Amino acid sequence: MFLELQHIAKKYKEKHVLHDVNLHLAAHQTLSILGKSGCGKSTLLKIIAGIEGQDEGKVVLNSKDISHFKTNERNIVYLFQEPLLFPNLNVFENIAFGLRIRNMASADVKNKVEEMLVNLELTEHSRKMPHQISGGQKQRVAFGRALIINPPLILLDEPFSSLDVETRANMQQLYKRIAVKFNITALFVTHDLKEALIMGDKISYMDNGVLEVFDTKEHFIDSDRTGVKSEIDFWNNL
Are 175 and 199 spatial neighbours (Cβ–Cβ below 8 Å)? Predict the structure, then answer.
């Protein structure tokens, strides 16, 4: 397995936030993590990224124990709800940033960024500044900046939650296409049931720091814990 979490536990003072979390994720898969606010989803991502330390357990990436690696040594990209673009850089240079700091030749940077702009449907916006583009376009730029350095793992912390319904649906479909094209391995955190089903090759559910990973979407749908049955009942009885 490409990503393994082994018995991860975390508490703040006397409050247990994560309880014996285990998961296995193959390369080029996206795992949806569904759960309510405060259930421990973001804490789990921060531990994988190295932003926070776990009290117990291991994080294994590509057969290497990275549990005590510093954040910058893990080469994992963490995308937040807000795109956090550099306000003084245009779209092209925001996407190019990771390549520039790696001292890639200018001609190669140009070719790679232009290809990414095409894939993200942003070519006509390449010279615009962040304040001149929409929320959905900003999120695309953030994706491009993350993907262009070819990270082994991307952590997505409710990246579409601030977008309107139509833009959110468009971004979900864009992500699905990009994930296949660039062989993305990712964890996708959401509190939206429909989004969890759409985005995940595999689906998990977190409640009070306990993570359950389902073998299939059918098992997820059949579970009494996930809320799918009550959602179906609502629409059937409307």
Answer: yes
Rounded to two decimals, the pTM is 0.89
Q: The tokens 């999120």 sit on which residue?
A: 139
Q: For residues 189 and 41, is the Cβ–Cβ distance under 8 A?
A: yes
Indicate if the pLDDT at residue 134 is higher than 80. Answer: yes
Distance CA 78, CA 143 (A): 10
Q: In the predicted model, what is the mean pLDDT of residues 194-216?
A: 93
Query: Mean pLDDT, to the nearest integer, of 89-102?
Result: 96
β-bridge pairing 77-79 and 154-157: parallel
| Residue 44: predicted pLDDT | 96
Chain centroid to CA 87: 22
Q: How far apart are CA 156 and CA 142, in angstroms?
A: 11
Does residue 235 have a pLDDT over 90? no
Q: What is the DSSP string of 39-50?
A: SSHHHHHHHHHT
Q: What is the DSSP letter of 82?
A: S
